[in-house]
Amino acid sequence: MKKIIKVVGAILIKEGRILCAQRGGEKSLPFLWEFPGGKIEQGESPHQALIRELSEELLIEVELEATIFDAVSYEYDFGMVNLTTIIGKLKSGEPVLTEHQEIRWLSPEELFEVEWAPADIPIVKKLSKMHFNQ
Ligand SMILES: Nc1nc2c([nH]c(=O)n2[C@H]2C[C@H](O)[C@@H](COP(=O)(O)OP(=O)(O)OP(=O)(O)O)O2)c(=O)[nH]1
């Protein structure tokens, strides 16, 4: 039985575009693209973990939707990632890269121009067919 890694990622929307982040080269899944976020710590809700992670890794404050957008599981060689995603928007600050290699605001139809972490594919597929007004 693989270890279960609970992760939460943000689908941050601005002017119809989605914030996409490229992982660093020294991490697991090097240079693949992901939704910014990270591991949920003991006792945290996904929302609490996401607010903490985004303030730590991108130095931003966000407003999150109350409901979960989607959740998927993917078995990597290092463990089973349970990825929960939540839609939100920037409340203050502009993203500052402290861990990521690069960030891009991509429109839904541009999402597959970058190479995503395998766990994210079903979520990215769903988003690529959507349209965001703000
Ligand atoms: N934040 C985030 N992580 C993702 C996504 N998709 C996906 O497979 N993951 C994986 C990568 C990591 O294994 C884990 C997230 O943990 P983390 O953000 O704390 O990762 P990390 O690179 O600092 O940790 P590590 O795996 O190198 O120990 O979930 C995603 O969209 N967003």
UniProtKB/TrEMBL annotation:
Residues 3-129 form the Nudix hydrolase domain. Keywords: DNA damage, DNA repair, DNA replication, Hydrolase, Magnesium, Metal-binding, Mutator protein. It is an enzyme of class 3 (hydrolase). Its EC number is 3.6.1.55. GO terms for molecular function: 8-oxo-7,8-dihydrodeoxyguanosine triphosphate pyrophosphatase activity; 8-oxo-7,8-dihydroguanosine triphosphate pyrophosphatase activity; 8-oxo-dGDP phosphatase activity; 8-oxo-GDP phosphatase activity; metal ion binding. GO terms for biological process: DNA repair; DNA replication. Its cofactor is Mg(2+). PROSITE patterns: NUDIX (PS51462). This is 8-oxo-dGTP diphosphatase.
